[in-house]
Design goal:
heterotrimer, A mainly alpha, B alpha+beta, C mainly alpha, B: alpha+beta, 5-stranded antiparallel β-sheet, 24% helix, C: mainly alpha, 17 helices, 72% helix, globular
């Protein structure tokens, strides 16, 4: 028991107790002095302060993150892993993609503010965009729908959360996490037996069929593992939005809104309820992935 | 109809040559086994035939068709891999049906063929399982089934039994032979195990260092090996080799190993007539060395005295690890022998079954079997001498007496 | 999606030439798939992606060595076409006047002990979870690993309240700060250790559990105690896992902003990340400072990444379940 004591007591104080305490406070008023039942959850559902605390926007933004960030990262990761496996500079290619994982969110924020800078004489992206004949835009502030930029017309605002700045933020997330997907998918692809692929060739499959009917089905489990990690990441995502926009211009997600409610507006009750909502989404996913992990362990 | 022919086929990797000037005609319905030590180029040869390996030079034909640039799927072949190479995400049924469905075979037809193959192999009750849920032997059957349903013109096997345990291997060996009789198709089978080759093949092709050494029926290869490599490779325990000097008179030829001298019977002496007073390599299979007290009747033998090192009882016979002078060798003798470790024993050599090889080229002097056509043989004779694990004779001319043949390396 | 479309549209080239290519690059499973793609389009797509991925970091690096006036007037790419008035002033400025030197030291003082402490505590717990039998072992393990999902922000207020109560405002010599609690280095060490434990225990337990049982049994038969087995067998055998974990923990702690933001408000004690964030708020578009400061904060992680890439990748593969 002595072996476990330091770890367990730290986990209890820094993680278990705060979770319990947060759940408790989610049923209390803004300064945690009295119980208010489900009022804070009702606040999240009814969204009574759409200007200062737009809970609906935060939830929708999180959903967009979840779908776009996870989907694009996995798809891009698979493409790069497949392509990199075909060339001799595979290791170099993979490190280039992987580097952003080693960088802090703060440094990434500086890098990308600079990339997204409005002035085409400073911001790389707007320089490219204006060279191509399109208009420069403040990527991190622009709340228009993507089509307004592509076509310069049409309805100025797409429904939330389809705003240009959300996509800009998500692309930074993709930039940081694709390397992770590449490394794992690449290992997964290498784990597929060469003889099995040769058997498929002898069986009469062309290269396209080999990929979709033999390789792809075999890496689906790997993609599930990656997707799980990325989904949890998308739900918990905080730092990136916090340092790049601070949740302004309609880019708030649940985690940043929680932070604002708790530390800026001192509304501990709503903050805690937001955290609990977040947890409620993450826990089932984590349970499934732990269950799957245990099954793997036993199968080994 | 599917004859297979290789004409002057080469395989080069960067700066090394894996297969050189390979010529072989395989008749329809033949069971040809390609055998040789690991790294001899036999798998590469098979893979060139399958289309998994590019042919650097030469021509490969299946039937009358040149297949050098034909994709594997269009060669009308099926292959069983060493690791079985089953698709792990598909059920047994889907594994077997995959090749047919890629070709657009009607569902009913696929079902019929898979059902038939499953019945032949006795795997009808596991068609819904995934490969992971099968034992090694069962996976092996599925791999066979996957090949059978395709009804190909040629079956290729790449060491299909090496992942099975000894008992299952013997059993599956017999089943593959039966399958060959039943299907009546050309089988080409690669293995490093000469026992598999001997038991299954209608013809065997022995390879070493990328060069075809000899092609023939199992009996032919065993009785008439064309060179020292084939002689040493076929048969277990391996043939004993002694470096010996040819002496005596033209009417009574002898061979002298330095530790003992033996008379050569007239039938064999003619082979040695160009080697008077020269060195040859004498080869005697262990079963042709008997305990002098239990020589089968009718054999003309040469008797010498040797010391027993170790005895191994095999049941119906006893292996004697013998020593005479500085030479050690192995005899397979009658189990009634009284030889005990440390004792002297009189052993009888059946010289009618002796082999002799040229010490430089390693070519057999006694074999009348046809040699394969190849420009590469001469080069290999030298290469064989360089390969320490194949070479039974030391090159060090200084002490011929230490040139022992250790058949023990394969023993046990 | 555009990449997919391009791939699909590439016509197949002659099979023979491709087969030769495949031979040379060592025919792996992927080369089989990609055989119908022309080599050329693979290179083009891949290089475009690599460039896209590297440009942001490269732009930062180039800009950090340019004159402030140049940065404001022209894009960083102009520096590559000849007129680069290379300067180290930005770094000099940031390190001396903007307190980045001190912040760098603070980052080190926070990261190194936290990393060591978390690995030690985690290794002990992981050993117990992997090789000792006690009731509720699996439940406890799942509870600890389950804490992976807890967003750190959620814990800040409750922990902050505890820290407020236990703060000892005795100044620590040399490194500075309080002895414990808020604005103290030891407080940061303990907090980082605690937050890193779920992942660290998860990773190490799996590694320890994979060690052969015979090894432990023979050590016990040889008369080794639990402690001896731990230090003489488990830890030495776990080198790669410990290295991978160490790199991860170090990078996370080095790159952390949030925990420092809450528990380490004193600007004198702030690590790099916090100092840069403050710089961003006060000099939003003065990129000469931001780029130099950001690059200083990235230098150590990048160095570690390149030197120990193998372990880094192993760690990613081993811990891919982490949230």
């Amino acid at each position: 028991m002595l072996w476990l004591l330091p770890a367990l007591s730290l986990v209890a104080v820094f993680l278990v107790w705060p979770v319990i305490d947060t759940v408790r406070r989610s049923f209390m008023n803004s300064d945690s002095t009295k119980y208010v039942g489900f009022d804070n959850y009702r606040f999240i559902i009814d969204n009574p302060q759409p200007i200062s605390a737009d809970t609906h926007a935060a939830l929708l933004n999180n959903l967009l993150w979840l779908v776009v960030f996870t989907g694009v990262t996995v798809a891009l990761g698979l493409t790069i892993a497949v392509l990199a496996g075909r060339v001799r500079y595979e290791a170099f290619a993979k490190s280039a993609i992987f580097i952003p994982m080693a960088i802090s969110f703060v440094a990434a924020a500086v890098i990308w503010r600079f990339m997204f800078e409005l002035n085409p004489d400073q911001g790389t992206i707007n320089a490219v965009v204006t060279k191509l004949g399109a208009e420069a835009t403040p990527w991190l502030q622009d709340q228009g729908g993507p089509q307004t930029w592509f076509t310069n017309q049409g309805p100025q605002d797409w429904p939330q959360p389809f705003q240009i700045n959300n996509f800009a933020l998500i692309s930074v997330g993709i930039w940081m996490w694709t390397g992770f997907a590449v490394v794992i998918l690449s290992a997964g692809l290498k784990g597929i037996s060469t003889e099995v692929l040769e058997a498929a060739r002898v069986d009469g499959a062309n290269e396209w069929q080999i990929f979709w009917r033999v390789i792809f089905p075999q890496i689906i489990p790997t993609m599930v593992v990656i997707s799980t990690t990325l989904v949890i990441q998308a739900l918990k995502n905080f730092d990136l939005v916090f340092v790049l926009t601070g949740g302004r211009y309609g880019t708030d997600i649940v985690a940043t809104l929680f932070y604002k409610q708790s530390f800026v507006d001192r509304n501990f009750g709503v903050g805690a309820a937001l955290a609990v909502v977040l947890l409620a989404f993450v826990v089932p996913i984590m349970l499934v992935s732990i269950r799957r992990f245990q099954a793997q362990e036993e199968a080994r | 109809m599917a004859e297979v022919s290789f004409e002057h086929v080469y395989k080069r990797f960067n700066d090394s040559t894996a297969v050189s000037d390979f010529n072989l005609e395989i008749a329809d319905k033949e069971f040809l086994v390609l055998v040789g030590p690991s790294g001899c180029g036999k798998s590469t040869t098979l893979r060139m035939l399958a289309g998994l390996e590019e042919i650097s030079d030469g021509e490969v034909k299946i039937g009358d068709r040149l297949v050098n640039d034909v994709a594997p799927r269009d060669r009308d072949i099926a292959m069983v891999f060493q690791s079985y190479a089953l698709y792990p995400h598909m059920s047994v049924y889907d594994n077997m049906a995959f090749g047919l469905s890629l070709r657009g075979t009607p569902k009913q037809e696929i079902k019929r063929r898979v059902g038939e193959a499953a019945q032949i192999l006795g795997i009808e009750n596991m068609l819904d399982r995934k490969p992971k849920a099968l034992s090694g032997g069962q996976r092996q059957r599925v791999a066979l089934g996957r090949a059978i349903v395709r009804e190909p013109a040629v079956f290729l096997f790449d060491e299909p039994l090496s992942n099975l345990d000894a008992k299952l291997r013997v059993q599956t060996r017999a089943e593959i032979s039966k399958l060959h009789q039943r299907l009546g198709t050309t089988f080409i089978y690669v293995t490093h195990d000469q026992v598999e080759a001997m038991t299954m093949a209608t013809r065997i092709a022995v390879m070493n260092l990328g060069v075809l050494q000899q092609v023939g029926t199992p009996q032919e290869l065993y009785d008439q090996p064309v060179n020292q490599f084939v002689a040493g490779f076929m048969g277990s325990p391996a043939m004993n080799f002694f470096r010996a000097t040819v002496g005596g008179t033209p009417d009574a030829v002898t061979v002298d190993t330095g530790s003992f001298s033996l008379n050569v019977p007239a039938g064999r002496a003619t082979a040695l007539r160009d080697y008077a007073e020269k060195e040859v390599i004498l080869g005697i299979r262990p079963e042709n060395i008997h305990d002098a007290a239990y020589v089968p009747t009718g054999l003309q033998t040469e008797v010498i005295e040797a010391t027993v090192d170790i005895t191994e009882l095999m049941g119906n016979e006893i292996f004697l690890y013998l020593k005479a002078g500085n030479l050690s060798f192995l005899g397979r003798v009658d189990p009634r022998t009284e030889a005990r470790p440390g004792n002297k024993v009189r052993v009888a050599f059946n010289m009618d079954e002796m082999h002799a090889f040229d010490p430089q080229t390693e070519e057999s002097l006694t074999s009348s079997a046809p040699r394969p056509k190849t420009e590469a043989v001469a080069a290999v004779g030298i290469a064989v001498l360089d390969q320490s694990d194949v070479k039974p004779i030391g090159d060090d001319a200084g002490e011929p007496s230490t040139d022992l043949v250790p058949p023990i390396t394969k023993g046990g | 999606m555009t990449i997919r479309a391009k791939v699909a549209a590439t016509p197949a080239t002659q099979p023979t030439t491709l087969k030769r290519e495949e031979e040379r690059s060592g025919a792996g499973p992927l080369s089989l798939f990609g055989k119908f793609l022309s080599k050329f389009s693979v290179h083009v797509i891949l290089i475009l992606i690599i460039v896209a991925w590297s440009v942001p970091t490269f732009a930062l690096l180039v800009s950090s060595f340019r004159e402030p006036a140049d940065i404001a007037r022209s894009g960083w790419w102009n520096a590559l076409t000849g007129s680069w008035s290379f300067t180290l002033d930005n770094y000099d400025q940031v390190l001396s006047q903007r307190n980045m030197g001190r912040a760098f030291m603070n980052s080190l003082i926070i990261s190194v002990p936290s990393t060591i402490l978390s690995i030690l505590v985690a290794a002990m717990a992981a050993y117990a979870f992997a090789w000792m039998r006690f009731p509720g072992r699996n439940m406890l393990f799942l509870l600890v690993v389950g804490m992976l999902v807890v967003p750190v922000q959620m814990t800040l207020i409750p922990v902050l309240r505890i820290y407020g109560d236990v703060t000892v405002d005795t100044q620590v010599p040399i490194i500075g700060g309080n002895l414990f609690g808020i604005n103290s280095f030891p407080g940061m060490w303990v907090a980082h250790t605690a937050y890193g434990l779920p992942f660290a225990i998860f990773l190490l337990r799996n590694f320890f559990a994979a060690l052969p049982r015979d090894l432990f049994e023979s050590a016990y038969l040889d008369g080794a105690s639990e402690v001896q087995v731990f230090f003489k067998i488990v830890l030495p055998l776990s080198g790669p896992a410990l290295a991978a974990l160490g790199i991860f923990q170090f990078l996370w702690i080095w790159n952390d902003l949030l925990i420092a933001l809450i528990y380490m408000g004193d600007p004198e004690l702030a690590p790099m990340t916090l100092a840069i964030r403050n710089l961003v708020s006060s000099f939003g578009t003065q990129y000469q400072f931001l780029t130099a400061a950001a690059f200083i904060s990235m230098a150590l992680p990048l160095l570690i990444f390149f030197a120990l890439q193998r372990y880094f990748v192993q760690g990613v593969l081993a811990g891919s379940v982490k949230g």
